[in-house]
Fold Diaminobutyrate--2-oxoglutarate transaminase.
Amino acid sequence: TDIATPTVFETVESEVRSYCRAWPVVFERAAGSRLYDEQGRPYLDFFAGAGSLNYGHNNPALKRALLDYLADDGITHGLDMSTTAKRDFLETFHSTVLEPRALPYKVMFPGPTGTNAVEAALKLARKVTGRQTIVSFTNAFHGMSLGSLAVTGNAAKRAGAGVPLNHAIRMPFDDYLDGRLPDFLWFERLLEDAGSGLDHPAAVIVETVQGEGGVNVARAEWLRGLAELCRRHDMLLIVDDVQMGCGRTGDFFSFEEAGITPDIVTLSKSIGGYGLPMALCLFRPELDVWQPGEHNGTFRGNNPAFVTATAALDTYWRDGALRERTLSRADRVERALLDLCADDGRGGLSVRGRGLVWGLEFTDGERADAVCRRAFETGLLVETSGPRGEVVKLLPPLTATDDELDEGLGILARSVRHTA
Ligand code: PMP
């Protein structure tokens, strides 16, 4: 195989083409912020399903709702049917998320995963505008299907699939040029210059914080500039909130802080709330040009996920408590990470993040990898991200206690020291 990770299922090794992350144990149970391997050893989970477990593992309120639903013979698969679980979710999503923010979106179930939501967004943008080109950003990640990969700024991920970049162009993300060029002026000039050969794009797709790309945080003013550029040049703005949505940055949507209203929004990962597959594509009602069945799929709309999603919204988003808690703990994490950088003998470390997504950048991927390995050995799950795997990414459950946060940050600090 091409994955040089330890084999964990020795007996079936020859039959299985499985990709295990670099954690050479077999996990068995999980609760809250902790996973347990089959020997019963606990691990603090600051990976959290790459942002799918904002409410922790087996969150009691969500588990109760799911168990009750199953005990009552609730429908697990109701393809394209109206169901009570679906209606409850839509009503709750409307009253807890859309209405309080005066967001006018229509809600679409594009399929089970984030990639499905991105595909639907790209298709919709092209259909609405009658144009084909999509603008995305350096180091963006939007999924692994052909369309979402075409707008993903990671050459290695594209190369294997031989995805051509037809109708996809890349702009520098915020700070990519270290402020040496005004943010969008060059692009605007090209758009206005008929001789530039630049196809007028249908849409721009952006993450407000690039998760897979290395926790690159766009400034609010940069996002506002981008929204303004889209407005001036009649391009749709798609915010891919698959990883940063559902409270990861504090607000329910990561774009709220910038005060922008995208035309299309993708959500997945933590929207189901319990690690169950679910995705949403939200769009302004006037963009609804879909014909019935035009974007279909057998596993669109997962009823058990509707149930846990509804319970998550009811429990955490009827008031602003989770938001406040997340924002107040951002400082705590930042301070701990800055201390860790200041103490590091080797130097060259830097920190960035928002809410409860943080990146610790090393000068090379090798050291970041060694830190993750040491963290695992001492009871903390964290992963690398970034174009060279040089950023250790922290995504603790938003429900982690202060003690758990401090414990994880302590293990991380000792792991960094261990590799100095
Ligand atoms: N968009 C973003 C911003 C993501 O982080 C991801 C997953 N890491 C995706 C899309 C793809 O989602 P999925 O893996 O659920 O298809």
